[in-house]
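re: ur msg from earlier - yeah i can do the iron/sulfur cluster complex, just paste it... oh wait u already did. ok heres what im feeding in:
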Amino acid sequence: MIIQQDMDLMKKLTILSDAAKYDAACTSSGVDKKNNGAGLGNAKACGICHSFSADGRCISLLKILFTNECIYNCRYCVNRSSNDVLRATFTPEEVYRLTIEFYRRNYIEGLFLSSGIIVSPDETMKRLTETVMLLRTKYHFGGYIHLKGIPGASQSLIETAGWYADRMSVNLELPTADGLKTLAPHKSRKNILTPMRQLQRGIHASQLALGIQEPSHGLLSENAPVQTGLSHGTGVLSASGYQPPQRSLQRQQPRFVPAGQSTQMIIGATKETDYHIVTVAEALYHNYDLKRVFYSAFVNVNHDEALPAQPDGKGVPLLREHRLYQADWLMRFYGFHSGELLSEEKPNFNVLLDPKCDWAIRHLEQFPVEINRADYYTLLRVPGIGVRSAQRIVKARRSARLDFKDIKKMGVVLKRALYFITCSGRTLYPIRMNEDFITNRIIGVEALNRYQIEHHDSYRQLSLFDDFHMDTPSSDK
Ligand code: SF4
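and the outut:
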């Protein structure tokens, strides 16, 4: 292990923002993008990730590790103790200086702070907690803070941190306990789920004390309002879930982890099927009230023989990751259950089709759906119809019968939807309700999307000096 004692701050920033890029628990997923800027940005790979704040806005965060030193040796991790990499550790004051300097320059709106395990889980959590306390209490930093909870750290440290961070996340790391045993033997499922449960209880208690009501989980139920931007009591239900009002309230009364908790799983390092993964995610949403589960496509950075080689030299399986995000979206906002999307008999998504199309083609007996009559939840299940277009359809048809031209204007993606709908009893073209026929037609459309996912550089670690206009993968229709 190479540890440099007298490292300047920018050098540390270079190492520790680069080391953080494999953490997917905000929207970027860790691929470098070359800098073309002059001056400071030209030499530094300082990470900015995009995340969603409690009011649903996409915000830029300074994404760094507190340290990339680590006493553990997780086989998939570039920072594992057996790797001979340059190591660095910030002090809380240094994190403060960087955050404030970038914040003042308008590069960022907040901080995403994770860490390797230095000395012990308690010592690590203590330093992270000191850092956020310093930012909040001494320097009155009001920006967004996403902080990692360290498995195995004492409850009192997690509790303290939760009063200063906006969001916290404890990484599940791998979908199963067996996977953890094999690849991250220092971690255990119990050590991970314990702080998750603690955060869940703290969040509920805090909401209760403030009289804030939130749905017990993020999944869409039959009676839950699903309209994006809908005013809901004291808060707003947006595309990222129910978001209570925070800042003004928080200023008067502190709130525990007001933006909720999330987690991350590495996909493809172990042999779990997609069915297994979405089932685990669904259970986490139900049982721990997570705001988000992030899926991070496995990258074999260590060329470790215990880990799968990158399939066929094709690089990171981003398409699988993308399908899981789409399925996750369907479970959270479209009322799908994991058991509808996949099963033991069909355990993996067809990477050639998005999960909603895949489901619809396997359930042709439920189609075509009549646009002028189908209820809102049925409309949501039609490929090419998203939350907004379903809402518009329901509203507009109160005053007039709708045809294909009308619904196209409302945002329906007809090239997908046309196989599954009728307007006043008519299809757009003569359609054969046949699985093979529809699959072949849709795969033509999907091929373009696939290409864009595999080649688009939105899956990347942003630099502080790039422009910030990163697209997020579309998955809501
Ligand atoms: S605990 Fe494991 S995953 Fe986290 S930094 Fe250490 S080696 Fe990497």
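cool cool. The radius of gyration is 23 Å. ping me if u need the other ligands too
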